[in-house]
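hi! just following up on the protien thing from before. the input was this:
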Amino acid sequence: MPGRNDLKVAVLGASGYVGGELLRLLVAHPAVGAVRAFSESHSGAPWSAVHPALLHGAAGAFEPPDPATAARWSDVLFLALPHGRSQLLADELETAGARLVIDTAADFRVRDRALAESFYGPHACPERLAQWSYGLADVVGKGLAGASRVAAPGCFATATLLALWPLARAGVLAEPATCFAVTGSSGAGAEPKRTTHHPVRAHSFFGYSLAGHRHEAEVTEQLRGWTGLPSLSCSLLTHSAPLVRGIHATLRARPTRPLVEPAALLREAYAGRPFVRVLDAPPELAAVVGTNYAHLHATARDGGREVLVLAAIDNLVKGAAGQAVQAMNLSVSLDETAGLTFAGMYPC
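and the predicted 3d structure came back as:
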């Protein structure tokens, strides 16, 4: 990799919400010297025509999609494409000699082919699944150093796994858990649809994918890997709320022994981790919107025989672009926090 302030970074699929967040973070990153953005739908348009906030200090125009050129030119290539597209490009990127590729879609998050295909259908290049590292940056940390292929976790999976990790690490999980999670409309992507239409969404609240949300695949694989228990899983009960950004998740688990002070496990698990805050009170979404921070809180019920862990994150930053940039920092041995310590907005 080049020096610490001249990384060349490309973004494929840069006109979506995650792509826009990547551009916002990368143009201000102290180690990034040049950024190119590729978009099929907005080729030739200025970045600010699609992402209005980039009018301020981030001049650029979208280029037509050219994965091979992007791979050859860049030191780091971010894929911000719809699910299913990255796997179709895998061979082309390898042939072009892509150095570090970070995918924000679900194509390479699950190594177990049967598990992946049970949620997502047939995979175009299952032989490459094992080549990708799962980029849960706040848990894996320096374990991402040197990784050349990183799959950024899903937004629901990020919140759920951050809540589960301290319990799994302590060895107190032995039965499936349940996570009730709520997200904002930006999680549905930039393409308009009925459930993101303002008159439908603005004053409504509804559940979806209750028979099995696809992020359960990566949650299940990570949970089983952490504990060595092939029977463990976590049901995701996902809901849409009348807000734009954020995920608020409430994990319910029954530990193998009573945990009267479960917050102690969280503080121990995340000691020294720069983007996780363990709070004494339940977290509020407004405190994390627009940031790369995760706020967690734990409490016990029934004498510690039931544990609730609450997690609040911004779905587009910590749940997508921010975590992907954090993974980049770790992979190329930069300061993990580089370009990511900005505060959010309040009120928002």
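The mean pLDDT is 95.
Residues 37 and 65 are 9 Å apart (CA to CA).
cheers
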